[in-house]
Structures are given as structure tokens and as C-alpha cells.
Amino acid sequence: MSIVPAQEVVDLALQIAATSGRCDETIVIVTDCADASLRWAGNSMTTNGVATSRTTAVISIVRQGDQIARVGVQSSSVVDPAALADLVAASEYAAHTAPEAGDSAPLLTGSGEPADWGDPIPDTGAAVFAELARELSVGFGRSDRLYGFAHHVVETTFLGTSTGIRRRFTQPTGSVEINAKRGGASAWAGVSTPWFAEVPVPVMLSELSMRLGWAKRTVELPAGRYETLMPPSTVADMMIYLGWSMEGRGAQEGRTALSAPGGGTRVGERLSELPLTLYSDPSARGLECAPFVHAASSSERASVFDNGMGIDRVDWIRDGTVNSLVYSRAAAAEFGTTAAVPADNLLMTGGSAGLADMVARTERGLLLTTLWYIRTVDPTTLLLTGLTRDGVYLIEDGQVTAAVNNFRFNESPLDLLRRATEAGVAEQTLPREWGDWATRAVMPTLRIPDFHMSSVSQAQ
Amino acid sequence: MESVIRAVDDDFLALPRLALADAALSAARAAGAEYADLRVHAITTQLLHLRDGELETSVLDRQIGLAVRVIVGGTWGFASHAGLTPDVAADTARHAVGVAVTLSALNSEHIELADEPVHLDATWVSDYRIDPFSIPAADKVGVLEDYSGRLLASDGVDHVTATVHTVKEQTFYADTFGSSITQQRVRTQPVLEAVAVDADAGRFESMRTLAPPTARGWEAVVGDEVWDWTSELAEIPDLLAEKTKAPSVVAGPTDLVIDPTNLWLTIHESIGHATEYDRAIGYEAAYAGTSFATPDKLNIMRYGSPIMNVTADRTVDYGLATIGYDDDGVAAQSWDLVRDGIFVGYQLDRVFAKRLGKDRSNGCSYADSPHHVPIQRMANVSLQPGADGLSTADLISRVQNGIYVVGDKSWSIDMQRYNFQFTGQRFFRIRNGRLDGQLRDVAYQATTTDFWSSMEAVGGPSTWRLGGAFNCGKAQPGQVAAVSHGCPSALFRGVNVLNTRNEAGR
User: Fold this and answer.
1) Gyration radius of chain B over CA positions
2) Are A53 and B206 inside 8 Å of each other by CB?
3) Which residues of B touch A141 (CB under 8 A)?
4) Would you give the DSSP letter of residue B227?
5) Sign of CA dihedral B50, B51, B53, B57
6) Fewest beta carbons less than 10 Å away: which of A185, B190, B273, B350?
7) B62 → closest Cβ in A73, A77, A372
8) CB interface of A with B, residues 80-109, below 8 Å
9) β-strands B159-175, B180-198: how paired?
10) Minimal Cα–Cα distance from A93 to chain B, Å?
């Protein structure tokens, strides 16, 4: 980006705030984003693009004694440095006119720039798709119709506070999804690939071809409860929703599915005899994400006062038992517990079997591919509805024998964990439904003895 | 209400719009583009969220940038940048040409645009009375504190959330045909929700206000001029208390009278998305999905009963998709999607109009950000009221045993727009043609054409309301769009109702 470097914007904004002296503390978060995308349908490219953008957020804090703080947040994508003074002033004004913040806490302190602070900011562009485009065009020349999307986003975030914190992190996020259609059959394959190195397009295409082959025989099945193998992508979509529903405050106040009857939360409740552990960890290999809080606004999941706080591994479920809920420092103090902040990834472990072994040990059941359009039906049980998509397969006597129609399901991720009878080996996967927000996931296959297919969907 | 003729804000008009257009369009042509357009796009958003009367989230964000779209040898190329100088605009145009050239080998369809009159130096501003960004945040928070306090003061209300999301969107568009268009619009979404907790039973129940998001200003939130906040905030605690004690629904085929506050979302999912041409021809096959309403069924397929008439428009007063000109430079229009129950129309942009053999696009191109490519997005899609002037009470009087469904809550539909499932805010039992208390744990599930074929009667114009959403998602990278849907109350026979506790195996 041929504009003032992000690091300088952080320093400049902090200087403007220090000079004005209108607020007691200031936090500046600058994120530079480079984005490249490529989309195709029916064996032809449809849309593409490259985008260069920056977001600058200025958080101003006015203190009155130890307990009372007022916060103002202004953010902007304007890159002209001349606009920075106005942005800081607007943030300061907002702080002065704000009511008291409920999540007030002392800011953390730091000792200045880390060694990599001034390093160049990584970029991306259409060139990352060169190899992919070559391999895709081979697929475009064949008879199956291909649809899909490749996306690469490189975001570098710089955090600076008037209390001396300086932290930076580069978050690469990449994904490739291919949907293949043959006659009335549809199949899907997706990978998460942070730097677009070695995207296995030929492997994906042959996997898709195999699955479309499974659909040579089709079987119509009615709604009902079926023994079902949920592969990692489907488990990820259900567990990500559970992860988003684990705010401590809501559970403490009796208004989420993690609230316990009689008061308090479900922390300590055993969901499963399987050794299932659901966790987030910024240093998880291949799923690295920001190891510190950079929150431009407060919510039930984050507090601007925690900016710069280290994020560690948190076991949300440990060995089958609910272990932890999300708390900012202020919420943790209010409820007498410890702060727990989720990293931007989600993993679950608890088994060792490969999918092929699990299929081989299935007498009769369904094998899913992906889930779609997942929404809350009943928040008290975290009952979710959604559809199966791009491949439901019938397993008979240990082998996939046919493709089955799609279904609408009604299931709760908590109940799936309560009823799972087997977990497979944890693998890196691309969540289908939540892939716009969450591409970093490692999940097992789960065997559910009685997955609830509520009705048949005619969609193919 | 007094209407105000508004102008585009001075700070947006002060941008070097013509210099940016000159730089981008001439650089694109010089680099080999046969077509180019420039869009300067500013989006200002404010989110205020109070929990139990305390401010939890307050953010004001302004996004601005420029986008250049080109056609080179029949292939699209797109690039965008945060910078707003002529040099950046020219560089970005060359970048877009580079993208098209780099990826042209993957393109097998020659891109052509349907004709459109040139709109030179056009300006359009939406109709709103109070610019939400002219009101200090503290005053807005004050209104939400007041509304929250009214709910919290009631016995039986344990928690209250209050959220207002306001947006101002400004665009300058110029293309190589000669159009140059400057536009500004605002939208506002106020939501309050009350929660009652039964800690001993480990259950809770919530009830949300029915005020729709609207392309109006702060007048939609403060006072009772647009929405009767006084009455609704006064009645919610009693409605919530009644709901917590209501019996659980008995599942099975049920006659439903569906209020416009719920039906708009069913229209959105089962008609709005299903009549998008890009979905119908597979552009969204890997993501948002396709549609059962394929081009071979146009003017042939029965979508619903003969009283079903559905229009699309970008012109309705206070509609969230209402605009002067779309992001292809096409003037706003209105047209039929379903007439007398038959599927007769699609939503189009200039590329798809050409592909469908139409003379002109109906103006559905939209990009939600300077950094996203315009795609075909939803117009305001609305079910027309009946001519015989039936009231909601008239519809209810026709039902022996049924449910009157009010307010939207959860929604889900499959990727070809067949199978859907919706819940709601309030479910009133109908017995012998009259309302008889609330029910809980209700969802309705159907297949699109079965559902619309079961529509026996529609209410008259007095029952027609405009609902809508800020958050309609589509495309990769994901884009969100705001859209409104108008509809009357309507009577449906024998819709499958689920009990959500039973669905959860309890």
C-alpha cells in the first residue's frame, strides 16, 4: 500500500491524543488488509478481484477515579493521514459524552515495540491463484460441471496503547472450495490453506469424482432418526456455533443453553463419556491466529479494556466435561472466575479412528458431506436447524452403496456431544456454513446413533 | 409527516469525483478495456447496543474507497483501493485490467451488457426526515436507556437488550457509456428484546419488538411518529409473561394466519432468493445455492394459488433496496415476479438481462463495499394485498383451529429454495375464529410451492406492512444487503407445524 505505513499511523494517532490531552488513555488498532478472490461456475470464471484496504480504530478512555470509565470508539477506512486528527477528536468526543462503561478495567501495560514491529507488511494478489488456475482449467475441460471459490486474505494488525503496548500479528486466511455436479448429483470438497501453498486441486477433483460415482445409485429415504457419521466439516459447523454460544455472562444470568437448572452454569457437567476436548489455541499448528486481544469494540465476548492481553489455549470442554466459558477480565471479576478469551480457531480431539474405518464398522447408516443454513430454533436447548448438502451417502455393511436425498435436521450441538458413541481422529477441515468467518478448524468425525432428520429436502 | 428534500452531504460532494472518474476510465481504456466503471463508495455505520440499560457496544465506522470494474476481451476484472486520489484511481484501473488478463483463460463466457440510457450528472437522495448521524450518540443512548427502562421496570422481565444499527451509504458511479450518478441513502434498525428467566426450571423465554428496519432516519426510533413505541413497549411484558405460561403446541398440519411481521421473511427466502437469475443459472451453486425456479419454468410454473401476486421494485417508499440507480447505472424500476400464481419474472443485472434476451436490466446490481464487485442483489420483493379489503380479523374468523403467527425469529431454507422452517415471536391459538391465548415451542415447515399453493386468502391493503432485513447474505467473498418486503396478512391451510421441544427429543 503506497500510503503512510500502518505502524506510523499507530504512533501518529497516539501522539495526537497525547498532545490533545483530552482523554486519559488511548488505544489504536490499525489493520491492513490485502484480499484476492476468484470465483467460478459451470466451468467458467464468474467474478474476481483484488482489494487493498485499511481500518484504523481509535478507542479513547476517560477515567473518573478507579471505578468509572467512559469509552469512545471511532473507526475509519480513510487512509489520508490528514484525517487522523479528526478521527482522534471524534473518538475523544464520543468518550466524553458516553455513559459509564460496564466493562471498565485498568489497561494492561507494555514496554514498547517488539522486534518485528517495523518489518514489511505481507501482501497478496491474483498471482497466488496461478497454479490453482492451471489445475482448475484441467477440470474445466472435463465433463463434470465445477463451481467454487478461492479466497486469500492477508491481514496485518498493529495494536498500540498509551500505556506502552505495541503488538503486531499477520493473519493469513485462505480457502478453496470446489463443488462438482454430474447429472443430478452434487459433491463438495474444501480446504483451508493460509498461504496458498500446495493446494491439492488434483486430489480434490479425484475425491469429487469418486463421490459423484457413489451417486450412480440413489436411494430415497424418509425423515427419521439415522445412525450417522458426521465428517469433520459438519462437526466443525455445529461446534463453532456452540463456541459462539459460550458467553459466561449469559450462562450466569440464566439466558443461554449453558445455564444450569437451579442457577449457575453447566461448567462441570459431563456431556460425554468419550474423551472429547474442545479448545482454542492461538499456537495450534497450521491454525495459528492472533495471540493477543485486539478488540475495536466491547461485546459479551470481548472488552476493549483487555486489548493487548495474551490469549492462551482454553479448553472449553475437557474430556467430555464442560470446562470453561468466555469472560472478559471485568466479567470474570463480576462473576468470581478467571478471564477466558477465545482464539480465532477451534479444535476438538477425542478419537483415533480414520473415516474409512468408521465406515467399515457401520452396518447401516448415513455419511454426510456438509451442513448448510444453520440457525437457532430454540436457544434454551441450543436446538439448531439446517440442511444436509452436496452428498448424503448410504452405508450398508461397511461400504458406501448409494447417494441419499437431502434432509432438514433439527439437532443441538450439546445433544450431539451427549449422544455421540464414537469420535474419529481429528483432522484439519473447512467448515462449510461458517467458512466466511471461521476457516481454522480441526475436528474429528463423530458417530451419532440417532441423528434427527426432521424432513426431506428436494434440493440437490 | 412533512417530507424533506435532501441533498447529498457536502463532504461527499467535495471529493474529486470527476477527476477520479477521468483518471480511472481513461487509464482503463488506455490499458485495453472495452468497458469500465468507477464507483466511489462511502458507508458510515453506527452500532449502539445496551444490555440491561447499560451501554455495552458503541462504534462509529466510516468506510470509503474506490472500485474499478473493467471488461477486457469479454472478461471481467475488478480492483479496489482505499486511496481517493486520481493516481490511485488510475493505478487501480490498470490493476483491474491486469486481473482480467491474468485470469482470462478461465473465462468461457463473453461478457456483454444490456443497453441503458445514459444518466449524466444524476443525483438521488432517499426520503428521510432526521439524518441519524446528525444526532449525538449520547442522545441516542438516552432514547435506548428510556426504552430499556420501561421494559425492565416490569415484573417478569429479567433482562433487556436494546440495539440500534444506522447506516448512511453514499456512492458516485461513472461509466464509459457516459453516466455519472451521485446518491445518498440512510437506513435504521431498532430492536429491543425482553427476556424472562425461570432459573429453577433452567428455562427462559424472550420477546422482541416488531418494529421493522426501514430506510428512514432517526424518526423511526425516537417518538411514536413512525412506530408506536409507547404501545409496543407497554404490551411486551404482559405478552412475555403470557408466553412463559403458554401451553406447548401440538405438532401437525395446522391452518395459519401469518402476520406481515412474520410473512415478509418467508417471502424473502422462498420467493426473493428463488427468483434471482444468477442463482437460477448456477452462479451461486457452490455457496448461496441455486433455485428450483429455473429459466425453463418461466411463464409456465405454478408458484402458488391464483391469489398470489408478487412484485419486485427498487422504488417503494422507505424500502431498504430502494435507490435511484443501481451499481450498473440502471434506473430503478418495478415489475412482476409472480402473477395470478404463475412465475413470470426474474431479478436481473445488465449481464443477466442480456443473457436472458431482455432489452434492459431491471436494475438489481449492488455491491456492499468499495472492495466488493457488484453482483445481482435482491430488489424489494412484495406480496400484493387482495382487492376485497379483508382485515386480519376477517382471516382469523375463517379458521376453526389454527395459529396466528406474529413476528419473525429463526429462518432456514435449503439451497434450491424448496424446504424451509421458520419460528416467530408470538403464536396465538385460534379457536372458532377467535384468538385464544398464546402457544410456545412453535415452528412451521413446508416446501415452497406447497406452501404458496395453500394460501387461501390475502388481507386487504389495510393489513399491508413493509418488513425487511439489514443482513441478507450472498456471494463469495460474502456480501450483505438490506432489503424490504411488503405483504398483507394471509391465510394458509394445513401447514406442517412442529413442536421444537419434541424436535429436540425432549
Assistant:
1) 24
2) no
3) none
4) S
5) negative
6) A185
7) A77
8) 80, 90, 94, 97-103
9) antiparallel
10) 10
ipTM field: 0.94
B contact residues 293-332, partner A, Cβ 8 Å cutoff: none
CA distance A330 to B465: 43
Which residues does B45 contact at the CB level (< 8 Å), separation at least 6? B59, B60, B61, B63, B165, B166, B167, B168
pTM for the structure as a whole: 0.96
The amino acid that residue B62 corresponds to is: R
B53 CB neighbours in chain A (<8 A) are none
Question: What is the identity of the amino acid at B51?
Answer: R
Tell me the C-alpha to C-alpha distance, in Å, between residue B241 and each of A168, B174, B211, B229, B427: 50, 55, 20, 19, 13
Most A CBs within 10 A among B412, B440, B497, hence the mutation to make, goes to B412
Asked if B445 and A262 come within 8 Å (Cβ–Cβ), the reply is: no
Contact B193, B175 (CB under 8 A): no
Q: B272 by DSSP, 3-state: which?
A: helix
